[in-house]
């Protein structure tokens, strides 16, 4: 079980992660996070969330959850899926997780290279 929280500790969560973690390089994730967004996912029913999460409809098919007090970007949820992604950067303490892939690399910023040898998916 992993525990995470926002900067102000107003939102906290626990989750049992599913296998797989990724770094998303799409334009929305880069703008929301300030770089690429590293995340893992869990089944919605396996999350326990305390505090208020505000949701932003990032597109017609997905939404992003954040703390309304400190603005910390915590979650990403596709409208038609029973799983939800969570930011690796908000986890409290050691995670035991490792990135497994890069996604939407066709949209990555020109100011960095992906050189860790992990699989890359252009979209």
Automatic annotation (TrEMBL):
InterPro entries on file: CENP-V/GFA, Mss4-like_sf
PROSITE patterns: CENP_V_GFA (PS51891)
Domain CENP-V/GFA, residue spans: 2-113
Pfam family, one: GFA
Keyword vocabulary terms for this entry: Lyase, Metal-binding, Zinc
Family as reported in the entry's similarity comment: Belongs to the Gfa family.
PANTHER family in UniProt: CENP-V_GFA DOMAIN-CONTAINING PROTEIN-RELATED, GFA DOMAIN-CONTAINING PROTEIN
The name this protein goes by in its record: GFA family protein
